Amino acid sequence: METPSSVLILGIGNILWADEGFGVRAVETLHRHYEFAANVTLMDGGTQGTYLLQHIEAADILVIFDAIDYNLSPGTLKLIEGDDVPSYMGAKKMSLHQTGFQEVLAMAELLGRSPRALLLVGVQPAQLEDYGGSLRPATKARIKPAMDAALVWLAEHDIHAAARQQPLPESESIVGSEIVMARYEAERPPPDQACRIGDERVLASDAFEVAYRPHKVGSDTLDVDVDYRGKY
What we know:
Layout: E1 7-12, H1 22-33, E2 34-35, E3 40-46, H2 53-57, E4 61-67, E5 77-81, H3 85-91, H4 96-110, E6 117-123, H5 137-140, H6 143-156, E7 162-163, H7 181-186, H8 200-203, E8 210-217, E9 220-228
Parallel strand pairs: 1-3, 1-4, 4-6
Antiparallel strand pairs: 2-7, 5-6, 8-9
């Protein structure tokens, strides 16, 4: 019998920064509502970057869910296939995880172990600067269309999913029951208890100073070093 293709469905991103968590939340939702054959792995890749290389190398078919800056309207869903995927993941990086994952794809290709079929399911984020925040409505509304698009693409590659009669309980979520989306949103502390963008009591204090020092790199001078100097 022919060995079935190894399939990896991967959500990457940082759930701590609002729409940056789209990829993880999409795979979380897909896992709760659909079941696949044993040759299909659904994974919360988070911001692991190069640590995902072994999983990419082992995959014949790879689907990636992520928040991507396409320079489009917030909530716009866009699918990219094949060789175009790495360039989209690195063209307008929103966070360090995208740099890391672009390198993972490059390393897999260099080693001759790239997936033979690759799909990026990306959504244009609406908000990133909200520490501890969840997906904005325009982004959250794209989870189901994103899943549907991925399922159609997978079916074209003879990979089929079955809808669960009942969604899996939160205790069986692939992201961990403590940070499933519903609980993460419901238990978020109010702004006066948890800083979201930076503590003004510190940033505006005379005891705190940020100084940028010129730093020589070859013939260029870059302001890259940051000093934090307190007066007390």
